[in-house]
Amino acid sequence: MSFIYGCQCKLATFKIKEIRKMGKTEKRFENIIFVIFIIGFSYLLYVARTSESYSFDGVASMAFPSWIFIITIVLCSVGLVRNLLIKWKETAPQEPKTDLRIYLSLVFIIIYAALWNILGFCFSTILFLIIESKMLRPSCDWKKVTLIAISMTAFLVFIFGVLFNVDFPEPLIELLLG
Amino acid sequence: MKKVVLMLFILVLCSTFVFANGSTESSTAAKKTVAYPTKEITIIIPWNPGGTNDLMARAMQPIFKSMYNVDLVVKNVPGGGSAVGITEAMIAKPDGYTLGLATSSYLALIAQGRVSSAFDDASNMMNVAQEPVCLVVKAKGKYADAEAVIAAAKAKSKGISVGIPGSNNVNQAYATLLQEKIGSEFNFMPFDGGSRIVAELIGGHIDAGVLKPSETITQVRAGELAIVGVFNKDGIAILPEVPTFDSLGYDVFRLGNIQQTAYLMGPKGIDSEIQTKIIDMFTNVLKSEEYKAFADQVGINVAAFSGTEFDTFIHEVYDGLVKASEEIFTK
Amino acid sequence: MNFATILAGVFSIIGNPVTLLWILLGTFLGLVFGALPGLSATMGVALLIPLTFTLSPVVAIGMMLGTYIGGIAGGAVSATLLNIPGTPSAVVTCLDGHPMAMQGKAARALGWAAFSSGWGSIVSWILLITISPFLAKMCTGFGSPEYAALAFFGLSIIAAVSGDSLIKGIIAGLFGVSLSFIGIDPIWGDLRFTFGSINLMGGISTVAALIGLYSIPQILNSCLDKDNEKITGKDLTIKNIVPPFKEQWAHKLNILRSSLIGTLIGIIPATGGNIAAFIAYDQAKRFSKDSESFGKGNPDGIIASEASNNGVCGGALIPMLTLGIPGDSVTAVLLGGLLIHGIQPGPALFANSPILVAGIFTTILVATIFMVLLQVFGIKIFVKTLNVPVNYLNSVLVVLSLIGSYAIRGSFFDVLLTLCFGTFGYLLSKAKFPMAPIVLGLVLGCMFEGEFRRALKLGGGSAKIFLTRPIALVFILIAFAIIISTIIKSKKSRAAK
């Protein structure tokens, strides 16, 4: 019910041409999120509607999710339409463009996780720590970076692997040593 | 500086060598003669820590240590109604050092086709504990015995609310079989777990619950709850005065002798000699005085048996659950 | 229980330095587990079960209780310093703790966290030792309608943690609720949105989602920051850390209210610190004269969150000790630990082994004192993590986050889940969506749905059942009052602009 209330509240204020502070980046990303949500939740609604919904008595298993999905789609559409229709007064200062290195970091994180199952935890962690810290600050000395990466990995393996019994994947080491 | 780097790197390599060497030794040893166990045995519990199955395994740890000088490592891998943990045990290296403690819940998942693996995809080794499910009501409450509950259910269809921990399991199967026999319907209330049902029963929110003795023994001993009927033919060893539904004249065994059971399993392809050793070790531990004292206190009914007796039993449970999933459960 | 047995129980703990040492060790371990993202108090307590076999029951329980109390309190450290909650119940601490640290008051923020954790623990301890049998009745007074009403009440405070934009907060909350649908249907047991994966059958792991949504975006957004100004020993005197007792006294109402909320929520099984912290935060904000500064580094926000989530510790012990019903996942493990030591909790425990009960009560107080002391001295070390150059800190944090999500149950699937949440969370953070409502929705969504449908079933398909249950009715009325006042407030603030 709270959602319906919120929804009505928003719809009511929709008519007022309001001026809100919002940066360009925020608005662009907001639109992206709204579109992702609308597509994603429409798909989920389709799944909910097409799969079998059990009900011997009372509320069927897919009924409640369907309601929530519909409300979310409606709210996102309202947000999107508002963003597209209303002229925003851009009082927020122009934000600098997102640095490429942030996206690169994200890619590195994903590659790093994937490497767990190939190189194993130890080696991929050393590699990741070296490359990531060096990339974020190229002025760092290679030797220092490598030293820190190796000692940090040894420390983490000792704490988690030995003391806390976490069973890390080490396929490469297992392969090499039988 | 260089020296330090080198030292550290060597240290890391050495430590990995030590780990890896442990496993190589054991696997080559296993091929020649059966020197088992040479290192710790991991037992995967497919549930969260703190539950009955978790306790069952943890209570074995000190006895394993004192009887065989072996470390038994309990690894909790919860998720998917035990499917995640058991799958991990099934795909482990078949060297006998990774085992799993599966329950009838997993058999129900196979019976319903919810997991891709079949009944025979694992080596099912031996039974560990077996618990009947019971009808539980509030002590000194509205219902004095099972007949009172049944009479109330007959008087008004869906008038009696019956709590079940989860759904599509042995508990639900027996409650459904009972309502078939009395020709009236219960209002089923599935909850997330046994402890919620205990609280709901004490608070008087629901009329009855279908639970295992180990889930209620604390409150039964404290006089808060009462077990009024057992869904099996032999009753409960720790509470012999409780009548069975068989003795009350309700034949709820149309699907065969389905029971809540916990059994030891492992990946397929474990050396048969090692398998025999595992079964021997676990049987001795389970039959020890120490373990019996623990089990009685917690309310677990230890039932350690293996071989053909186990095969017949586990197949009977499985077949009953297959029938139940065709006739009773949701898909 | 007469006075002599109580005294004997008390002295069995404080008269024995070895016992005290074990409790100290347990508390320390708990703080470490709590402070590291992904390692939770539950995991710490579970790890201790085999270790405590060789110890006597009271010592073992004392050690586990120390881990429990330390683990819940430790979550505030990473929440404040790094904006990454160490445990799920520290999500709310991020809201004010991190802004306060950004203003250069990290040490004081942690000092507030430590002391309010201590007060929360002590208030719930007092209730535990005085009126626990009475409060245990409250635990069994909660049936499905009451749970549903409580969850509804919890969801109604999404607005309070939404930040600037209400609509984005609500959408985030709905996203969290939708995530909670994944898994087995709470009533009929059929599979929903699992897409054939057994890993999704158990639902989305809260910890994996938490790490993904909080730590990955935070790391990415701060990885190019300049290094922090070096914090030297001079800034970290006890005077700078410990909030003056005069100031603590000024916040007495907030401390007491939040601790009570925590204790009461803790008594109700299957709720936990997360919900308590959200409710206490909302109440603190409502009662505060300066509600605008919440979310911008108001110490009252930290106090509400930490006092309530540590209040839950004492609260959760009440049904466990008096009825043998665990209040949350940690007490479930504690109960297992008691059973393995041959101790059967329940009413008989108080009659049969009063010395043990008095001992357990004493250990809670001792562990609480240790927790506060360890934190006060530990803060000097914790805060220095901010001195680490940003490039190293962030890359190590990535590794720690992935280890955290992996370590919960040793599953690589959870790592993948964390990465998915992390990537999406980064987009959400760019669009300035608040994260707290997602966590609230994820935790309360399935609870609300399951209990609501169960309550309807209990009422024979009619919602009239809520009108016949006074506790449920009160919660629903409060929830509506909150929703209406939020709408009025947001209209007013719009008009003011």
Feature tags:
heterotrimer; B: 331 residues; alpha/beta; D-Maltodextrin-Binding Protein, domain 2; 2 domains; six-stranded mixed beta sheet; 11 helices; 46% helix; globular; disordered N terminus; C: 497 residues; mainly alpha; 20 helices; 2 strands
Task: Describe, in short, the structure shown.
The complex is a heterotrimer of chains A (178), B (331) and C (497). Chain B is an alpha/beta fold.
Descriptive notes:
The complex is a heterotrimer of chains A (178), B (331) and C (497). Chain A is mainly α and 178 residues long. Chain A folds into two domains: 2-85; 100-176, no CATH class. Chain A has seven helices and no strands. Chain C is 73% helix and 1% strand. Chain C has helices at residues 3-14, 17-35, 41-51, 57-82, 91-140, 144-156, 166-179, 206-222, 238-241, 245-250, 252-267, 273-287, 299-323, 329-340, 347-352, 354-383, 390-407, 412-430, 436-458, 470-496; strands at residues 183-184, 191-192. The longest helix of chain C is centred in the first third of the chain and has 50 residues, at 91-140. Chains in contact: A-B, A-C, B-C. The interface between B and C is large, with 56 and 54 residues.
Helix fraction of chain A, binned, reads 55-70%
User: What about the largest sheet of chain A?
Assistant: none
The CATH topology assignment of the largest domain in chain B is D-Maltodextrin-Binding Protein, domain 2
In what order do the strands lie side by side in the largest sheet of chain B? 2-1-3-10-4-11
The number of domains of chain B is 2
Classification by helices and strands of chain B:
alpha/beta
Number of strands of chain A: 0
Low-confidence runs of chain A: 1-19
C-alpha-based Rg of chain A, rounded? 25 Å
In whole angstroms, the N-to-C terminal distance of chain B is 64 Å
Q: Sum up the overall morphology of chain A in one term.
A: flat
Largest sheet of chain B, described in full? 6 strands, mixed
Mean pLDDT of chain A: 82
The percentage helix of chain B is: 40-55%
Count of beta strands of chain B: 11
What oligomeric arrangement do these chains adopt? heterotrimer
What is the tally of helical segments of chain B?
Answer: 11
What's the CATH class label of the largest domain in chain B? Alpha Beta
Q: Whole-number average pLDDT of chain B?
A: 85
Radius of gyration of chain B: 23 Å
